[in-house]
From TrEMBL:
ATP binds at residues 228-232, 247-256. It is found in: Cytoplasm. Keywords: ATP-binding, Cytoplasm, Lyase, NAD, NADP, Nucleotide-binding, Phosphoprotein. Belongs to the NnrD/CARKD family. Residues 19-333 form the YjeF C-terminal domain. This is ATP-dependent (S)-NAD(P)H-hydrate dehydratase. One of its GO terms (biological process) is nicotinamide nucleotide metabolic process. The keyword Transport does not apply. It comes from Exophiala mesophila (Black yeast-like fungus). Gene3D superfamilies: 3.40.1190.20. Catalyzes the dehydration of the S-form of NAD(P)HX at the expense of ATP, which is converted to ADP. Together with NAD(P)HX epimerase, which catalyzes the epimerization of the S- and R-forms, the enzyme allows the repair of both epimers of NAD(P)HX, a damaged form of NAD(P)H that is a result of enzymatic or heat-dependent hydration. The lineage of its organism: Eukaryota, Fungi, Dikarya, Ascomycota, Pezizomycotina.
Amino acid sequence: MSSGSDPATANMSTASRAMLAKVRQIVPPMLEKFHKGQLGRVAVIGGSADYTGAPYFSAMASARLGCDLSYVFCEPSAAPTIKSYSPNLMVSPILRSTASISPAQKDKDASGEELAKPILDMLPRLHVLVIGPGLGRDTVTQKQVKAVIQAARKHDPPVPMVLDADALWLVQTDPDIIKGHKECILTPNVVEFGRLAKAVGLDHQNSDPEKACQELSKILGGVCIIQKGAVDYISQGTQTTISDFQGGLKRAGGQGDTLTGSLGTFLAWRQIYHEGLWDIEGDKLSREETLLVAAFGGSAITRECSRRAFEKRQRSLQASDLTEEVHNAFLTLIGEPGQGPKQNL
């Protein structure tokens, strides 16, 4: 790949180039034989009375990157607002809270499995779950989500997932719910990383952040972790990489939702890569390696979106500006199969 004058690629490290080459391996080609849904069915679980933007930004990033079907499973009070943002998303008000649980369910203290049944019924139709954007910490919601995570792990095959925001709070309170789930990506910021480390007894205060990320992943049994920051440290316990692409300087709320949505699509593509949906040349990557590759791809896309949006908007940048940059970020860093990256888009 020629560095040219494009700031996205001009100072790219050899390691980053090698990782992007692997990301390209899991991107499916656009073939006439594919039918609707084969190139990705991603569901974002989140959205509450106070938080409607986060699930929208996540689901739209997933769609803009290229998944076929993008769902939002939200609390009923959030559904009309999220639906009004875009007709492209399939929004289902099947996430419950203390305010929306039925009197009968409240009286008998319904189990998480019972509350989660509408979502559990959807699992066979999904490639990936993205859990956390706009989720909130309502006790009924958290009980339902915990049941979803447990069921997704037991599903045959297990449903890959991305956990962020208040889903990370749930993991912090009960790390065993995701321990050993090697189809999972966590996306903590520095503060959230510290809380997760404390929850499992990892003293990382004086550790190299790259080593700390790998050690936390090991303790959690191979869950992939993206520790977000000035650079993103990414590890699935056996391998660790750094995503140091230039981003923007504005820290607007909601930028992390572009990351979770992008990860959702990369995990869906990873799934169909391993299912052999298209002919693959050369040696096939292992599932362990493609988990790291998918995480790196999501990080790289998000940081490039941030750079592009900041270049245009400067301090006025908002999360929605990143959404508009997803496709060109993909074309610049990864490119369509058989065509390669494009410069100066």
